[in-house]
Every structure is written in structure tokens, then in C-alpha cells.
Write a structure and sequence with these properties.
Length: 411
């Protein structure tokens, strides 16, 4: 047997050389699988943390989670959070980030970080953007200046940020888009992946995830996944969803993509954060989620519970001396009542922080409960119990029934 092996840069190395190489900056191991659905539990080890999956990742767009301190996230045992490449590249910029030694040190966050590529701003800031094969030309929302975000520039910013996981720059279109633009975006995403890989300067410290695109067209999703999985990356993302498509189209696309992606690498569904969606998509085989929803809805005075979202501004809570959730052990539920929060939400700035802590704790606890249920092979029972509380009186939406039935859970 040949004692040489090909390593990623194409050169040959002996077995001794390979054994002396440091481990890759991301290692993933599946430790338990549901015997009925596609749900699984894993450990994703990166430089700054061991992250148990399935995991929900809070979003700190500008290098800060709005209303929540890093110390508070640590107390909730949050292992990974997000930063936004587009906004961080604009402010404070790569010069400051490099001088600070990366975003971990700059914001005082010792655990794992994931950065998006800036591609989503093609949709959210479309009126400020022009998309070409070279990249995306933006008008800055801060000072009106013009700048170009290319796959290479996105990698440069993300290398300066130093996140453990980076996303390729992808060509993003609204999920409701039809016609040739969808295929054009999918093809360009593949080409931009190769440019991103070529520009990645810290592969021994940071891992890049490709993004499966293709809109709501199964054939395009299949083509994209087949091409992306030819590249030896350490994980994969499913993008271009949760943007206005029907829930039926949403779950079917997720179900298809998890069938197409490797079982031995983490699968990240971008921009999904409603609790019921998390439960369904874990059953469909997703490992990682992110969304601004928990903190954004807190700023409007809304708190998350197993029975659904409650609006603390409503007068019904004015004399309610219960915590947001009776069985929640977060600092908010230990210290404050619904009545107290009713009188300060959307009025006092501190209320945003108090409710945000609970909402993030709720999301993290939901994921922990699902991991426990999968490990103990009682996940289908967990799903049925969760849905009975969230949708009492047999009001479970049909799309949830159909999605779960596709993985053998019948409500």
C-alpha cells in the first residue's frame, strides 16, 4: 500500500508528516440518532468551543447581541453566536479588527463565532446594491459611500474577524423569485464558492461553509448540492429560505436538502428561529440555526413560551405576578414578574435586556431538551408533546403535520 497521501493543497506527504499535522479547525461527530426521524445529536469542535448540536445561534450583527452582555450569554451556556460580515466590514472595518486581534478579543467573547458572508444584504438592502459577476456593489447605509463586496473581499473581512466558521459569499435572491434569475444565482454561487476557497487565507484556523441555493426548484437544489459537496469543506448551509415562501415549500426544500448533504458534516439552516420551525427542522435533519427573532421580538415587548409568544404590553399582564415561564430558570424568570415587565417593556431601555435574556434562554433550552430527547430515543414523543402545548385543541398547522409525517411522526 502506498505510504503517501494527497493533502488539501495537492502535495504529497508521508504518513509521518500527516500524523504530525494539527487537527482541522472544525471536527464534527454524530453521537446519537433518532430511530424514527432524521434528527441527530452531534458535537462540533472548533478552536473556541465544543458545540453540541442541534444548536440555535443568537445573532450579534454588529459584534454585540442587542441588550445582552457576553457574560450573560456565558451564564446561559451559549457556545456559539453570529456576527455580520457586511456590517462589521463597514464598521469598525478590517483595520480595527486586525489591530484588536479579531472579533473574539474585540467584543470579549471567548467561545465560538460564525460570520455570514454579507450575501443576505443583496436582498435586505437590494435598493442599495447592484449584483454582477464580480461581486455586489453597495451604497453604504452609514455614510452613502460606494463599495464592492466580492467573494475575495468577503473572505478578507472574515479572516480579519477571525470567526471559527465563515460563510461563502453567495448570490441571494428572494425565495419568491421565478424564472432564469434563480438558476443564474445558483450557478454564480458555485463559482463564487471556488473564488472564496481560493481567497481563504486561514484554513488552518477557520472553516468555510458553502451555501446550497436554487430557490424553490428541487432540480436546482439537487444540482447545487451535488456541486458543492464535491468541494472538501467541513460543513454545509441551506440558504435562500424563510423569505416569504409558503411553509409547505419551506419544509419540502429543507427535507430535500438534508437528504442531499453528507451525514458526517453539520447542516446549517440559515435565518430560521421560530420555535415550531426549529422542532420541525431538527426532525428533518438540520443541526444549526440562527435568527434575530428572539432579541428583536423582545424589543417589542414580546416573550417566548412553550405555549407561544406573549405580548407583555397587553393589559392582561398588568397584575400577573407569575414569571414569564414557571419552569424557566433564567435570571429574568427568577427575578421578575410579568406584571413588572408589563409596566416597563418598550418604555425603559433595560426591559429589552431583561426580556432578551429570557428569549435567548428559551431558545437554548428548547435545543437542549431536543438533544436530550434524541439521545434517549424519545424524540417523536417529545415532538408530539411540544406540538400539543404549542397548538392546543388540535390546531396544529397542516404544513407541520405533513412535514412530520414525512419523517414518520404522525400527529
Amino acid at each position: 500500500m502506498d505510504s503517501t497521501a494527497t493533502i488539501p493543497n495537492g502535495s504529497a506527504a508521508t504518513g509521518d508528516d500527516l500524523s504530525n499535522r494539527p487537527p482541522p479547525p472544525l471536527q464534527y461527530r454524530v453521537s446519537a440518532k433518532c430511530s424514527v426521524t432524521k434528527a441527530r445529536v452531534g458535537v462540533m469542535s472548533v478552536r473556541h468551543a465544543d458545540v453540541d448540536t442541534p444548536v440555535f445561534m443568537p445573532v450579534g450583527t454588529q459584534g454585540t447581541l442587542k441588550g445582552v452582555l457576553p457574560e450573560q450569554l456565558l451564564s446561559l451556556d451559549c457556545r456559539i453566536m453570529l456576527g455580520n460580515t457586511y456590517h462589521l466590514g463597514m464598521r469598525p472595518g478590517t483595520t480595527v479588527l486586525e489591530k484588536a486581534g479579531g472579533l473574539h478579543r474585540f467584543m470579549g467573547w471567548p467561545r465560538a463565532l460564525l460570520t455570514d458572508s454579507g450575501g443576505f444584504q443583496m436582498v435586505s438592502l437590494l435598493q442599495l446594491a447592484e449584483i454582477t459577476e464580480q461581486g455586489v456593489r453597495f451604497q453604504s447605509p452609514y455614510d452613502g459611500s460606494e463599495c464592492m463586496l466580492t467573494p475575495e473581499r468577503s473572505m478578507e473581512i472574515q479572516n480579519a474577524i477571525g470567526a471559527d466558521i465563515m460563510m461563502q459569499l453567495d448570490d441571494v435572491v428572494k425565495t419568491t423569485t421565478t424564472g432564469p434569475r434563480v438558476e443564474e444565482a445558483m450557478d454564480r454561487t458555485i463559482r463564487w464558492l471556488d473564488r472564496s476557497i481560493g481567497a481563504h487565507g486561514r484554513d488552518d484556523e477557520q472553516s468555510i461553509f458553502p451555501i446550497v441555493q436554487g430557490g424553490l426548484q428541487p432540480d436546482l437544489r439537487r444540482v447545487c448540492a451535488a456541486e458543492l459537496t464535491k468541494r472538501n469543506t467541513r460543513g454545509f448551509a441551506v440558504g435562500g429560505l424563510s423569505g416569504g415562501e409558503s411553509k409547505d415549500e419551506f419544509w419540502r426544500t429543507v427535507h430535500l436538502c438534508t437528504d442531499l448533504l453528507p451525514e458526517d458534516k453539520p447542516r446549517y439552516l440559515m435565518g430560521v428561529g421560530f420555535a415550531a420551525d426549529l422542532v420541525v427542522c431538527v426532525a428533518l435533519g438540520i443541526d444549526m440555526f440562527d435568527c434575530v427573532f428572539p432579541t428583536r421580538t423582545a424589543r417589542f415587548g414580546c416573550a417566548l413560551t412553550r405555549a407561544g409568544q406573549i405580548n407583555l404590553k397587553q393589559r392582561t399582564f398588568a397584575q400577573d405576578m407569575r414569571p414569564i415561564e414557571d419552569d424557566c430558570e433564567c435570571s429574568t424568570c427568577r427575578s421578575y414578574t410579568r406584571a413588572y415587565l408589563h409596566h416597563i417593556v418598550t418604555v425603559e431601555p433595560v426591559a429589552c435586556s431583561i426580556v432578551s435574556v429570557h428569549n435567548v434562554a428559551f431558545q437554548l433550552r428548547l435545543m437542549s431538551d431536543m438533544r436530550d430527547a434524541i439521545r434517549e430515543d424519545r424524540f417523536p414523543a417529545f415532538v408530539k408533546s411540544y406540538m400539543s402545548v404549542r397548538f392546543p385543541d388540535d390546531t396544529v398547522p397542516q404544513w407541520i403535520r405533513d412535514a412530520l409525517a414525512a419523517v414518520n411522526v404522525h400527529l
